[in-house]
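User: My advisor, Dr. K., asked me to get a structural model of this assembly before our group meeting. I'm new to this, so sorry if the format is off. These are the inputs:
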Amino acid sequence: MRALSWCGGLALVVAILAFPFLVNAYWLSVGVLAMFYAIVAASWALLAGYAGQFSFGHMAFVSLGAYTSGLLVKWFGIPVPLGMIAGVAICAAVGSGVGFVGLRMRGPYLALFTVAFSEVLRIVFVSEVEITGGSGGLEVSPLFHTRSDLPYYYLGVILLAASLAVMLALVASRWGLFFRAIRENEDAAAAGGVKVMRFRVLAFAIASAFAGLGGGYFGHYIGILTPDIGSVDQMGLVVAMAVIGGAESIIAATIGALGLEFLVEALRSYGQWRLVLFGALLLLTMRFARNGLLALAWDQVRRVDRMRTGKAAREVAE
Amino acid sequence: MAGYILIQALNGLTIGIIYAVIAAGLTVIFSILKIVNFAHGELYMMGGYFSYFAISLFGIPPLLAVIVAMLVSFALAVLVERTLLTPLYSPTTERKGDYGILITFGISIFLRNIALIIFGPYPLRPPSFFSGALIAGPLIMTWDRVFAGGAGIAMLIALVWFMNNTPWGEALNAVSQSRESAAIVGIDDQRFYMLAFGLGGALAGGAGALVGPMYSLSPSMGLIPDTQAFAIVILGGMGSVAGSIIAGLLIGVSESMFVALFPDPSRSLTYAQAFSLVILMIVLLVRPTGLFGRVHTSME
Amino acid sequence: MMPVPPAAATACLIEARGLTKRFGGIIAVNALEFAVHPGELVGLIGPNGSGKTTTINMLTGHSKPASGEIYVRGRRADGLAASAFAALHVGRTFQITQLFSRMSVLENMLVPGLARPHSTRSAVTHAARQHLEFLGLAALEKLQAKNLSGGQQKLLELGRALMLDPDILFLDEPFAGVNPFLRDEIIVLVQKLHAQGRTFVIVDHDIQALQRLVLRLAVMSRGQKIADGPVAEVRENQEVLRAYAGI
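Assistant: The format is fine. Below is the predicted structure of the whole assembly, which you can bring to the meeting.
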């Protein structure tokens, strides 16, 4: 079993690294977007699945990070990486604010609040045309001055790897335990000495920071930034990615995002029906495989494995 | 100027009644299924489209189309409930709250995308119920709007009557107060969840059908009224239809006034949408215990 | 009966003065005066709705009093969060067992341990395993908490409270719905912990069990404390008998 997961993981890593040389330019651009969605979906899974804070405002931070970086670079001419860092910082701060304000709310009310917050921000970005370019789009300086997507792809891989490393380290630490405890039972966590308020705000700050990172990466790649990236439909896509992959596991959500983004493009000929398909897939997964498809697949593999070893053991006994 | 304000206020009243109808549906769903129905706005949206197609495809007269829309919305809601919501009542489902949030959010995304495919992204304008307008002094209001307000009131009255004077309605009331005690008395829970969700959907769909001729239809039209409905339920509804009505009228009028008096006309429409969202955020901040602060649904 | 350290006349471990709590129009706890000294084993009884659990909630930070003061080791503590009370070595269990259902038994124990400042993973894990051994749960370390039996869950909750190294433990209905075998086990565990020097306030309806355990009994009825003293005295108290006759 161990061998299988190591092999699978290694194969995945090799595939990711070798990817640009295996595909044409179109699919490379899909790969870039896949990296973006992976960072966003993983950080959403951290906040909602792992820490139990259901926020539907995640894409608002993606767009906030993108616009912050884009505008700072445009107005002050600062180098793009600096702009992206500023975007991350702003998102961490605003995210803390949302987390703090949302402390009094639990479950569905927090979700409602974050939806409203996300839409308000999107409306502001649409309306303040002089600043943001509104729906017409904002021109954002590119990260790399090449026509090829290659550097973007590898930067995306690095950012994703770094983000996952940080998130996984967090999950393995005592903070990860506290997040799960808060998710499982806030009162018991408080009775156990966990500073619930502090950690709920922290979860928001960290997840929003990653969303901002993804946003900056996206903005400086795509070149023309519109408020759509912060829409509820984009949020739905990210939720679908995370849930279908497995909302409570950061790795599963990442794989879900990568898989679904490629699927979205592979099914391009189906047009709008793709999104209907994903919606249906999301509903089916929630209904019948709540822990996500990866967990389902893993369980099946384990079951087969157990049957095999059971059979082998019986054969040995005979 | 006074005339303008008056007209806006009356428009606000009408839209407030519509919001109250949506909120009433939301309340019924909350009190019985104990979930926040994120897909409520989409049921409203579908109702609008059902009515439109009843008229354009089947030639059903507009007034009847509203009823048809309500019936089809009811059926759609029941279908959704049977296929996707039953885990909410099963003892083996963990973390029902999380499930409710994610599944209804997923349903809303799904319905919106289905609508985008079937109906296209461009707004559709259903034909008017009545042509012409009511003119009384400085007051001008299209008959559609008058009808919408009146029909909305009729729906609310019908709902209250249903909850108080029919065995199903009273049982619904009982189940809303306490699932456990209803089970003891021998009421079959499952059918009540169907009825509650269906009823909520029918009210939302009916509201959408009424609103179509006034504001036109689009797949994303559900978001804002949905938000308003949540704000209304949290603010004043809490299971009380009378409270829903008052809160609905208040929010409807204030939204209208906001649009009318907003200093920058080029932004007023988009920020009007933000207004309702901000109201919801404020309401959530002020009353975070929200809907379940009172478990009992009493229809006054 | 195990030898009990004499209750210190001066230093109060936890004290409530004029503690009041309202829910809507109802006064759940009315100007309560209640003091617990180090080394005591106090039972808190009363008919349903008398305000016992509300009192515990206030004394552990899970509920804010409407008025009144709470002192922990002489310092004001009312208004502090539940996690702050935990940091002050005030532990509690809940009427309905509150666990981290999908976390393992060991993880349930690690959370309060690691929440304490200057704690290391290895030290906390070691302490957790010792407590689990003490409670007889050591073999279940890797199981998810939701898969434990009801009785095991109650013991785990006690273990979680022990990870705070509490000076005082509030147990809310530890004997509720518990079979006689487990009840006796809990009594023995509490006595052992008490002998280690920990103070207990136990709320329960099982007066037989409490009488085997505690030396002092406080009785609440309708938000007020109507009796507080040695068990034998309280048993004879007319007001107490009347309050219970009303059930």
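One thing worth pointing out at the meeting: Chain B has eleven helices and two strands.

User: Perfect, thanks a lot.
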